């Protein structure tokens, strides 16, 4: 179900059993607050404040803040909103009616992500691909 290894001088626990992983991440998460961070806080302050990068009391506080947001019923509701954005994304490119479309991927997915966040987090419907200068995208 689990094993331990050393990564140089650091002991590491490897979980292999899905039921054990679920138990730790859902029920016993409060006992596993300190983990190795991927990026030092001084090199990338934005990523270092991510839930997966926090440790100790900062992690506990962030987890208790975010947990009510991601209940199963809210996730199901968010899925339908994200699906709507996905359909809008596809329709945008189908409307162009071309065999080959040249797309700048970073800009395109930034706009898609902006629409998903606007829709799910703020309840604002916008079409950043169809209306590139919309207010929500420009302010974001």
Task: Write a structural description.
- The protein has 140 residues and is mostly helical.
- The protein has three domains: 1-32, no CATH class; 35-70, no CATH class; 71-139.
- The protein contains six helices and two strands; from the N terminus they run ββαααααα.
- The chain has helices spanning 18-27, 45-48, 56-66, 72-95, 105-122, 135-139, and strands at residues 2-7, 10-15.
- It has a two-stranded antiparallel sheet with strand order 1-2.
- Helix 4 packs across helix 5.
- It is elongated, with a radius of gyration of 20 Å.
- It starts with a strand and ends with a helix.
- The mean pLDDT is 88.
- Its main location: endoplasmic reticulum.
- InterPro entries: Cyt_P450, Cyt_P450_E_grp-II, Cyt_P450_sf, Insect_CytP450_Detox.
- Its cofactor is heme.
- It comes from Asbolus verrucosus.
Describe what is shown at a glance.
The protein is mostly helical and 140 residues long. The protein is built from 6 helices and 2 strands, in the order E-E-H-H-H-H-H-H. The N and C termini lie far apart (45 Å).
Describe this protein with a few key phrases.
two-stranded antiparallel ribbon, oxidoreductase, microsome, mainly alpha
């Amino acid at each position: 179900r689990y094993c331990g290894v050393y990564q140089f001088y650091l002991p590491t626990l490897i979980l292999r059993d899905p039921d054990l992983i679920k138990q730790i991440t859902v029920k016993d998460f409060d006992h596993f607050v300190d983990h190795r961070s991927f990026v030092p806080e001084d090199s990338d302050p934005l990523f270092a404040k991510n839930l997966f990068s926090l440790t100790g009391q900062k992690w506990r506080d962030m987890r208790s803040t975010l947990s009510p947001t991601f209940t199963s019923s809210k996730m199901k509701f968010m899925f339908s909103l994200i699906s709507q954005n996905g359909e809008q994304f596809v329709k945008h490119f189908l409307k162009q009616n071309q065999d080959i479309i040249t797309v700048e991927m970073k800009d395109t997915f930034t706009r898609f992500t902006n629409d998903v966040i606007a829709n799910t987090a703020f309840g604002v419907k916008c079409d950043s691909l169809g209306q590139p200068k919309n207010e929500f995208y420009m302010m974001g």
